[in-house]
Amino acid sequence: MEKIGILMLKTFFPRIIGDIGNLDTFEFPVKRVIVNNATSKNVVKTSDNNLIDDFIREAKQLETEGVKAITTSCGFLARFQNEIVKHLSIPFFSSSLLLIPLIQEMIGDKTIAILTVRKQTLSEECFSSIKRPFNAVVYGMEGTHFSDIYVDNHTDLDVDEARDDIFKVIDKLLEENTNIGAILFECTNMAPFSQDVITKYQLPVFDICSLVRMMNNVI
């Protein structure tokens, strides 16, 4: 029986092992459902708040089917956290961004580096459910192969190039910020590269899949 339900965007890009949408990512069963009206374009690019009813409907259905907690396949859905959780009697964790207060407690006065697929639309609304204060810098993947794949929904993923894109952004943020204590991937599609980043930079890296594993262990 699946304990975790995942609300998925309707996408066509490849989902490699480590991605929340890959069938072999987790060591335990999960139940995925596609929210058909939700795409990378209207969730990440245009932030369409009219999608809220679709997510509430599918979340309630997952609860009816017996899952014990629900998450999503896009960190930008943090902006729906407060509304969706009102309609459920089980835990709902929309995004890895919900980890921010915990990470801040663990690293003290150091800074959290948040990597997002698209900084220009990761609005204050996406942080509305996050308890303040926290100390963070946000860096985006605009203008990269990674962005072409996961925002523009292309299918020609080059895994090495996508990894290098992430490395280049992290190199830049570490050059510009000397007090980074942890890295947080907003984008669920960055999770396949978490271990590479941990190994290269010797910093803790948090992503949606680590949060899913934690929740699966406590429900």
TrEMBL record:
<protein>
    <submittedName>
        <fullName>Aspartate/glutamate racemase family protein</fullName>
    </submittedName>
</protein>
<dbReference type="InterPro" id="IPR015942">
    <property type="entry name" value="Asp/Glu/hydantoin_racemase"/>
</dbReference>
<dbReference type="InterPro" id="IPR001920">
    <property type="entry name" value="Asp/Glu_race"/>
</dbReference>
<dbReference type="GO" id="GO:0047661">
    <property type="term" value="F:amino-acid racemase activity"/>
</dbReference>
<dbReference type="Pfam" id="PF01177">
    <property type="entry name" value="Asp_Glu_race"/>
</dbReference>
